[in-house]
Specification:
1 helix; mainly alpha; ATP synthase F(0) complex subunit e, mitochondrial; ATP synthesis; mitochondrion; mitochondrion inner membrane; membrane
Length: 89
């Protein structure tokens, strides 16, 4: 026994109402998908433009934070190892 169920041949006579409903829903879904794509594309394009304008600013802020953290860490290490800190550091 293979464990499959024999359902018999497919029904050759499908109601025209069911066929019309299937095609209508398919075409409607295609149009709805195209509409949603356009709406989402506009929003995504606006977001990408914002990110491309802001990315250099965010990178500069991150670099300043990183430089400050690095300086503080080096000062801490110098104090822990009793290394003199240069006056212009």
């Amino acid at each position: 026994m293979s464990g499959t169920i024999d359902l018999g041949p497919a029904n050759p006579r499908i109601s025209p109402l069911i066929k019309l409903s299937r095609w209508t829903l398919l075409v409607g879904g295609i149009f709805w998908g195209a509409h949603r794509y356009r709406v989402n594309k506009e929003a995504e394009d606006a977001h990408r433009a914002y990110v491309s304008r802001m990315q250099p600013i965010w990178d500069a802020e991150a670099a300043v934070k990183k430089a400050k953290a690095t300086r503080e860490e080096l000062i801490y290490l110098a104090k822990e190892t009793q290394t003199p800190i240069p006056p212009n550091f």
